[in-house]
Amino acid sequence: MHHYNLLYREEEREMIPLCRDQGVGLIPWSPLARGLLARAGAPADTTRQVGDGARQEQLYGGSGDAAIIERVVETAHEHEVPPAQVALAWLLHQPGVTAPIVGATKERHVDDAIAAVDLALSEKELAFLSEPYLPRPIIF
Questions:
Q1: Helices 83-92 and 123-130: crossing angle, nearest 10°?
Q2: Which end of the chain is more exposed for a tag (fewer CB within 10 A), N or C?
Q3: Hey, what's the torsion of the CAs at 12, 14, 15, 21, to 10 degrees?
Q4: 123-130 and 65-79 helices cross at what angle (nearest 10)?
Q5: Which regions in the chain score pLDDT beneath 70?
Q6: Residue 56: what pLDDT?
Q7: C-alpha distances in Å from residue 12, one per residue of 79, 88, 95
């Protein structure tokens, strides 16, 4: 398992290439970046964020994050789907990813995860979503 989503992609440097080379499937955790990608563009006042703000700040808040979130929202509008489906679909388009750990707590979370499997993103859209990412320190 590894931490991997549109806002944290440091595993692309070494771990993901190694796993792919060795035929090991990838089971990323936090595919929606603690809900930031699911609620893209919405107020961030969930119980989890209020009680876990320091960890949230450690994990996310990089200089490219706002641009990525804006692009998730834009792509979601174009496909007429929730942002969570776009973020999960991006992840499922990444080589080697087999089963993201979604951490669903509501029925709609499961619905979004299932729908993301069938959401086809073009190469242009995948690049559009990925482009603003800037490397950051590795987080354990």
A1: 100
A2: C
A3: 100
A4: 150
A5: 1, 41-59, 140
A6: 55
A7: 27, 17, 10
Identify each DSSP E strand in 24-140 by its residue range. Answer: 28-29
Q: Which two tokens stand for residue 46?
A: 């969930």
Look up the pTM and report it. Answer: 0.87
Place of tokens 């107020």: 43
Greatest Cα pair distance, the chain, in angstroms, is: 41
Report the distance separating Cα 2 and Cα 26, nearest Å: 8
Q: 81 and 117 in contact (C-beta within 8 Å)?
A: no
User: Is-contact 48 4, C-beta < 8 A?
Assistant: no
Looking up tokens 């789907």, which residue turns up?
Answer: 81
Least Cα distance to 110 among 85, 76, 74, 78 occurs for 85
Is there a contact between 134 and 62 (Cβ–Cβ < 8 Å)? yes
- 70-105: pLDDT as tens digits: 999 999 999 999 999 999 999 999 999 998 998 888
